Amino acid sequence: MRSLVLLLASFASLALSGCMTVSDMAEGTRYQMSDAGLLDHSDTRRSNSVRVQPDSFIFIAQGAFAPPGSAYPRPNVVAEEAFNGFVEYFPMVRRARAPQGLEQAMVEARSVGAHYLLYARFARADDRIGNADEWVDQQAVDRLGIDSGIIQIMLIETSTQYLIDTARIRSRGGLLTFHDNKPEDLIAKPLAQYARSLLGMSDQ
Questions:
Q1: Which PROSITE patterns match (predicted)?
Q2: DSSP letter assigned to residue 62
Q3: Residue 27 and residue 49 in one domain
């Protein structure tokens, strides 16, 4: 905590000296608090740094795989949040209405003329006790804590079925933000960041 206070002080000093804008200082502070576990945090690992054209037509689908553990995310929540993140950066985006197998998703992606299929799933989801209702239901001290989850993504070219990229997104909540949160509440921002990375844009 002492190092965090010193870091905030240094950010303030740089801002006052004109070397750093207020927005830069806010982003730096948010990053440090996230890295320290106070705010939500995510880490995305891609297999390739490939970029796609901004006018690419992307079809988004989610597998029916249920993640192990006691968490039960909404069946199509990854596809829904991916669509919300991608539609801001790609004007031609559609998503499946319900979870699909990979072959079914590829058939539908081709039928609508999509250039790419983005196929995702929740590989792991840990929904810890984060409010009074969950405590009443579970009453387990070892279940108190911060939610976390892992999403796996495949980006496939529909014309060739070539796998052009895979990604693993690991998310966890923060000590200041875990109340009432669930693993699916942590995925919107990293999915939007993944969309930007496909265009070669840096995180905002």
A1: PROKAR_LIPOPROTEIN
A2: E
A3: no
